């Protein structure tokens, strides 16, 4: 089952995806909702973020391959920052950095874990954890993770939330202008999705719709204005961002 | 004008404070709302957080006195992390750290700037930016600001949002079990509230109800279970947290 949200003729709808249509539901997505019988052609609708997270928690240094390449120690606990809600953007969104920022902006293709009722895992999405890379270390006294990660639109996720997947079997690929730049298995994660939910929720209550971005691995590179970035995970779909 | 939110007989209400009563309003607080004529005695209601921020941005190293004492350089730009919404707690809330965390938890009394329409300043509140201090530097590779600041309840703000104040004339005092531990003027800030809103909103859109916690100054100390912490700012009121 894959859940999505769209805007159509000025209103928002959510529901399940069947082929090229949204089967509109009403009620609460995280309590499954109820099908209304209405169908909307995806080709005539605009994609929205598939849910409205109260928070997006995003991991640093969560893959063995990137830890090894960068010489980072394997962390004893999940290490994370957050991306604020103004950063959320949907499939096919156009995203640009503020005019005064002239540093590098990188994509980071990631698996997103979407929380359901009772701090369970509801499903999975693709995440493009865009980052104003030169801000993080700009001030030597204080690494600016939240700022560098939270520019408007820098937290793309979607296109849908997919259920019924084994996350450990998934592979994240990122394509820039259709050229593959990232391709890594979730099985290389230091903390699995289930471990992340378990460890984080001991301290920070996770609400339905919250997203944990599981961190990225090798192949992160700067985007240039005009780049089209696709984060694709088989079983979920492909999340496209137009970087302007 | 001071705005508050309360729970009374199972429902939530917002409105202006007049003496010991809430003058109930309907509509949008940030568009002033409309008085309904109903009054609720504050003594019979439970305080809620005065608005529902989509994000709380909190400053590090924003007062000259604490920078001087700690040997921190004066930052060229605002340095901030964020506190996730699960951390928000109201006046008179009971807050406790997770059982497995046995490190220090400190209070930080702060001025909170509440955003209104069009990224303007709507008003001001008190903030107790509670912090699991021993987490920040626990992993030498990654300072854990968001985690240390975002335990459930660790972001107290309120009791109300006050309008019509000159923030540069305000003084923040923090009392622990009625003993004064912090007393510092906002005029000592490195970045004023107006500068914070201006600089942050260039990159990160601020929504009505969002809170910028302006950072703390000298006098931060650990709390012990049983501590009662009051963050008081004349013209706003006193925000009480019961630390368990």
Mean pLDDT across every amino acid position of chain A: 98
Low-confidence stretches of chain A: none
What is the molecular shape of chain A?
globular
Biggest interface between chains: A-B, 39 and 39 residues
User: What about the largest sheet of chain A?
Assistant: 12 strands, mixed
Structural class of chain A: mainly beta
Q: Which percent range fits the helix content of chain A?
A: under 10%
In quaternary terms, these chains amount to homodimer
Overall description:
Two copies of one chain form a homodimer. With 244 residues, chain A is mainly beta. Chain A has four helices and 19 strands. In chain A, a hairpin with a 2-residue loop joins strand 2 and strand 3. The radius of gyration of chain A is 17 Å and the shape is globular. At the A-B interface, strand 7 and helix 3 of A face strand 7 and helix 3 of B.
Give descriptors for this structure.
twelve-stranded mixed β-sheet; five-stranded mixed β-sheet; about 240 residues; homodimer; mainly beta; about 10% helix
Topology summary:
The structure is a homodimer of 244-residue chains.
Chain A: E1 2-8, E2 11-18, E3 21-26, E4 34-41, E5 46-48, E6 56-60, H1 64-70, E7 79-83, E8 88-89, E9 93-95, E10 105-106, E11 109-115, E12 121-129, E13 131-132, H2 133-136, H3 145-149, E14 155-162, E15 171-176, E16 179-185, H4 193-200, E17 211-213, E18 228-233, E19 237-243
Parallel strand pairs in A: 6-17, 8-14, 9-19
Antiparallel strand pairs in A: 1-2, 1-5, 1-14, 2-3, 3-4, 6-7, 10-13, 11-12, 11-17, 12-14, 15-16, 15-18, 18-19
């Amino acid at each position: 089952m894959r859940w999505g949200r769209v805007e159509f003729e000025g209103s928002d709808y959510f529901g399940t995806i069947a082929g090229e249509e949204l089967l509109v539901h009403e009620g609460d997505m995280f309590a499954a909702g109820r099908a209304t019988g209405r169908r909307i052609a995806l080709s005539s609708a605009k994609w929205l973020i598939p849910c409205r997270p109260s928070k997006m928690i995003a991991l640093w240094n969560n893959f063995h391959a990137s830890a090894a390449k960068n010489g980072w120690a394997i962390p004893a606990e999940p290490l994370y920052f957050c991306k604020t809600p103004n950063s959320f953007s949907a499939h096919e969104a156009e995203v640009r950095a503020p005019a005064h920022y002239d540093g590098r902006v990188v994509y980071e293709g990631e698996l997103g874990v979407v929380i359901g009722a009772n701090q369970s895992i509801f499903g999975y999405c693709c995440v493009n954890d865009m980052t104003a890379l030169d801000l993080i270390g700009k001030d030597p006294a204080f690494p600016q993770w939240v700022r560098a990660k939270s520019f408007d639109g820098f937290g793309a996720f979607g296109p849908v939330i997919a259920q019924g997947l084994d996350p450990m079997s998934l592979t994240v690929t990122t394509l820039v202008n259709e050229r593959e730049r990232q391709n890594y298995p979730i099985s290389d994660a230091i903390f699995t999705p289930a471990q992340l939910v378990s460890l984080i929720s001991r301290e920070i209550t996770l609400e339905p719709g919250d997203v944990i971005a599981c961190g990225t691995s090798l192949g992160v590179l700067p985007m240039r204005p005009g780049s089209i970035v696709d984060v694709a995970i088989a079983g979920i779909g492909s999340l496209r961002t137009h970087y302007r």
